[in-house]
Description:
This protein is α+β, with helices and mostly antiparallel strands.
Amino acid sequence: MRRVFQWLLLGLIWSLMAVFSWAYVAIHVHEQNASRAAQINSQSLAFFWDLSSRAQVVSSFQDEWQMVADGLLSAGPEPAISMHFAGQYLDPRWQGLLTITTRGTLPEGSRFRLEFSDQTTPRYFDSGELPASKLNQAMDLAQLRWSQKMGDDGHWSTQSMNWSDLPTLDALVVRFYGPAGSTWSLGSIELAQWPDTRGLTIQVQLCQNQPSWFNSACWLTNQMHHHDQQTQRAGLSQQLVVPTSPLAPLLWLLFAAGLLWVVVGAWSQASHPVKQRLRLFAVVGLVPLGIGLMHIKWPFDLGQILYWLVPLGAVALMWGFRTHFKRPSQFGWPVLIGTLLVALVMWLYSGRHGGFITGLPMYFLWAWVQQLLLGPVMTDHLRTELTVSDGTLAVLVGVLFSVVHAPNHMLMLATLAGGVVWSYSWLRYRNLYLNSFSHALLALMFYQFMSDPWLGSARIGHFFL
């Protein structure tokens, strides 16, 4: 009976984190749609890039430009630039005024061309070469001749298309051509709303068109995010309304963190000194703190140096626990057999594709790092600090491993089950190779097995949106 009560408490912590995830995604969808509606009504809906940072440029194009005081300076004779749409979509029925601002004098004979695309299809639409005289003024994209890219040979069809007939678009590439040695810079790029769209009707789609418990789009974050993406792809004349939480997402996170500290405090070794118990609270508190930081944007705007922390941390972790690289004393056949059976079922019901095999070696390394954190770091540390059974300890570690994957509900469910099994497997067999293989194989098969509406991606935190 005591163990059941302990598991119910852990289930409550996980449920609070699931509510936090829902509240976080719901408020984002609600605010995004409300802001877009307000911009449309005020005729101020626009994409604007001031080019004050190379981070606004798609990474594969960044090397073609250098930062200068007044924008971006070309680093080559025929540069190209592609802008981040930040998950938004351009609707040609609502937006069609493009202004590209340059500074300096472009040499005579300079030209450029525009390439819009729908990356989900993918389909590409080209304007043909345009004279540099069209820069530094609002271009009416409806006055240009558009061609659609056909086939895989890179050729453009000769059939012209009207701007208003193009689908919703999520990428823009501008390619410049001109004499070598020219010195000019890009100042800004703006895609503005048509001046005569105030009267267009916005159709509101309600996800609660049936009772919310029976409509997964209302409470499952993966479905909600997919539904929002589909609504955006349908054009700006459709918007999504979702139910939102009466409490801010941060409060749900604090509720879960508070209950987690209460549970850990109640289960900690009473004989341990106060300083050791406080250190335990600090270690466990890193989980909700890390989750909170993962769900805000500004830490990821501090520069690319942050992206080196993950590989550097992984190397440091492997070096610190290098003794676990030795051959394990026990194999863990039940875990291996269970892994292969679950993977086989997912493979049979996912089209029987073998694409996961090529990703297995690299994912094994990533799984190894995660299993080091799950087993030797978290499971072993909590085992010496808490007075609970191995089963309850495995469930606790599984919950902690799961909630780190917020707000991705489906990934949270999958990692809850996996975290419990791998933590218990570590306590029983001490086999890091087995757990890493199980993690890598099941993760890759899970991504292959799940359909896009029910998973979408394996992204977590701020990157989920």
